[in-house]
Amino acid sequence: MQPLFDDVTFEVGTPAQLAAMRTQPARALFSEATIAFLDDFSRYLLQHPAARGWPDVATLAFWCRRRALEREKQRYADLPMRLGRGLAFHITPGNVATSFAWSLTAGLLSGNSNLVRLPSRAFPQAALICEALNQVLQHHPGMAPYLCLVRYPPDRRLNDLFSSWCQTRLIWGGDNTIVTLRQSPLPPRSLDLAFADRYSLALIDADRYLAIADKAAVAASFYNDTYLLDQNACTSPRLVVWLGDRQRIAQARGLFWCELETLAAARYPLQPMVALNKFSRFCQHSARSGQLKQASSANLVFRAELSQLDGETLAQREAGGYFLEYLASALEEILPVCGSGCQTLAVLGVDRDAIQQFLAAHRPAGIDRVVPLGQTLAFSLRWDGFDLISALSRCITFAL
């Protein structure tokens, strides 16, 4: 008996395809059919006039090109020994427009059929991506059984049903979402991949920054990391740590924030409620901590300077251009904020060897990614400490 999906809106796929997904055979990883499909999907988006207005869509399309996918494929030496696990059920966050598409891409490349619950918010980027998928599927009908993108309101019954079908459940969307979804049991051999609430920080060496001629380019990189998604991405730095002596830091800070304010004034439409929320968050944070002072006069780029870091430093955070700052004389001073909640460390002017030595010496519970400033939003198949291709596939061992 086919389940009823009266409360489910199908953006890509059909009820019959969804019902059949639980018995769909797994595919080889990075199969030619999958790469060809994603390459055509990429081409469709890159040629679509509307995509030019959405940098996040353009980034997705560029990543899905055949050349980029073949490069990713070369990172895995054991692909002939792997198969997809089966049905992957993706629950994606409601505050980032394209996260669902990245999760879907990982599921397809790892050989799975994919049921994706879209954000409840009607992002225009999501509509464009679904349009592209539907158009490209017309030329790749063999891929249709492997992806189904749906929307439905919070419904324990549907969560229970889809969870009972899947071999892997990916929960993107924060701690509360994880707690709710885990009330729906999985089959005994199924896996949960949970992407919890995280935070990120930037580390800038003052001397190296001052030596850079094109400081406007640095500001543009930091703007893309933060304002582009309104600091809603867990990868967006909320804390900026300056490294060096105080005099050089003072000089670097003045130039850095001035460049960012100029850029934000030209590009970022500050809403009154966002401005009010930032000031309110500062007041709340300041009342709870005696280690905080306002470091900016304008609200567009709102800065609060900390006199010390601890495990609660980033518990209070706000979006829309709200930044904490800390002045450090040694790299080790960031250790208190490198707990399990710390995801990405964006660096400018700090040597790779110094970061590796810090990680080897202190082995913090957090920091899953170290990237250059300006690259925090760049997707990778290694995310939040998981290798998604390995986690979403099973390895067949031969002992002959």
From TrEMBL:
Keyword NADP: yes
Spans traversing the lipid bilayer: none
A Pfam family per the record: LuxC
Keyword Cell membrane: no
Keywords: NADP
UniProt xrefs under InterPro entries: Ald_DH/histidinol_DH (IPR016161), CoA_reduct_LuxC (IPR008670)
A single MF term (Gene Ontology): acyl-CoA dehydrogenase activity
GO biological process: bioluminescence
Protein name: Long-chain-fatty-acyl-CoA reductase
